[in-house]
Amino acid sequence: MKKQLMAMLFGTALILGACGGEETTEPVETPVEEPADGGGETTAVDAEQVVQQNCISCHGENLEGQGNFPPLNDVGSRLSQEEILSVIENGQGAMPANIIEGDEAVAVAEYLANME
User: How close are the terminal C-alpha atoms of the chain, in Å?
Assistant: First the structure.
């Protein structure tokens, strides 16, 4: 009986361990491409991928907005690229500052500004 109880407790612990814990998002790695002219390195940012990794959890899978989080699928019709970058860098409402930083923030602001 003790063996069965121990086996059941061990199995339960394994199942709960596999299901529990916080989800972590790995930082986005940006590929480095060589320019055709043979000059220095440039960093290419896949803004759509950055948006998918950082924005959809609050703004919805299709960026249509949900709850208190506004839609982003037409944000370019409401805000300029500079205003979008400002929101990304400084936060606004429930959105904390600097969720996306540097070149990625600039690329995402440009990407979202083109969504009308």
Answer: 66
Torsion from C-alpha of 82, 87, 90, 93, nearest 10 degrees: 160
- Best CA proximity match to 58, nearest among 105, 30, 91: 91
* Total-model pTM: 0.62
Q: From CA 109, how far away is CA 87, in angstroms rounded?
A: 9
Among residues 59, 50, 56, the alpha carbon closest in space to that of 107 is found at 50
pLDDT in tens, 58-113: 999 999 999 999 999 999 999 999 999 999 999 998 899 999 999 999 999 999 99
Per the structure, the complete domain to which residue 61 belongs is given by: 43-116
Query: Domain holding 101: CATH number?
Result: 1.10.760.10
Given pLDDT bands bounded at 50, 70 and 90, which one contains residue 23?
A: very low
What are the E-state strand segments in 9-116?
A: 32-33, 42-43
Helices (H), ranges, 20-101: 47-54, 56-59, 81-90
